[in-house]
Amino acid sequence: MKYADMNGKLADYRRQIADIREKMRETLAAAEPQEVRDYTFNTPDGSVRLSELFGEHEDLIVVHNMGVACSYCTLWADGYNGIHQHVVSRAGFVVSSPDRPAVQKKFAESRGWTFPMVSHAESSFAADMGYVSAKGGWMPGVSVFRREGDTITRVSDTGFSPGDDFCTLWHFFDMLPGGVGHWPGVSSKPSCCH
């Protein structure tokens, strides 16, 4: 196939993806939110409630991170770090992981991360949100919450995996001959995901 023909075919696929994204937004808008309780998390400064993580916003994005043991979660966080200031102009944001606050703080400092982190180690939060596997391992993803008065609801969520839309590196690799190839430790499923 000639390059120009291939380019036209890829442009058509991208239009189809854009159409599917619009359908996803419409489906999401019609979904009934899931009411959740006001979970308590731990930070280096003490405990904090889910309701406090919204700050001045009605919406809150919580990333379900698997912690320092997961190279994929670290890759995602490294990439996210640069856009954090833009995200928090629209919604509250926090990364939740099973690591203890001291471990989170030390690792975040070593990576230069600027976003807030909370520990769900002493909470059923990850399990209740569906981010613990049947075998008891942590799973990566993101949940979006909305606060209206004293009520908190989860309005959407999705898992993270290699090739997803939340780590831009995958999309750059997709454009290379051979795709991801043998980039360090790549498999169809991260070994840290159980």
Automatic annotation (TrEMBL):
Pfam family example for this protein?
Answer: DUF899
**Residues annotated as transmembrane:** none
Q: Which ranges of the sequence are coiled-coil?
A: 3-30
Which UniProt key words apply to this protein? Coiled coil
Q: What is this protein called?
A: DUF899 family protein
Biological source species: Dyella flava
